[in-house]
Amino acid sequence: MASDRHGCPDRVTVVLDTNALMMPAQFGVDLFEGLRELLGGYDVLVPAEVVYELRGLAQGRGNNAAAARFGLTVAAHCTVLPPYEDDVPVDDKVIRSAEMFNAVVVTNDKKLKDRLLSLRIPVVVLRSRSRLELIGK
């Protein structure tokens, strides 16, 4: 089996939700470095609907709007998935993407985290506002 550029034989697919993309600005964490330390080699996917949600949040004022704008710059370094054709909540699209790509999801959204874990989808969460932790696998 071929290794990736970090010497990792297996790559993990990761799906980021909206608040995961806002974590770097809100908590000063290096999301990509944290994922590399936790998972080794990985590929990052972002549903298009997450990007749309960030764009909406970025139009406002305050810390959340600034974090959303920064999240858009983070998303620019990821593979953005094409939008789904049906009109379902963004969380459902994150779950569908995780199921479709057998992926781990990065989120700190409690409701989404609980839904993912009930579906036996692993989740990466931010602990102590400083480090990423994998749960559910």
From TrEMBL:
Lineage of source species: Archaea, Methanobacteriati, Methanobacteriota, Stenosarchaea group, Methanomicrobia
Pfam family, one: PIN_9
Domain of life: Archaea
Residues covered by the VapC9 PIN-like domain: 14-129
Protein name (record): Nucleotide-binding protein
InterPro entries hit by this protein: PIN-like_dom_sf, PIN_9
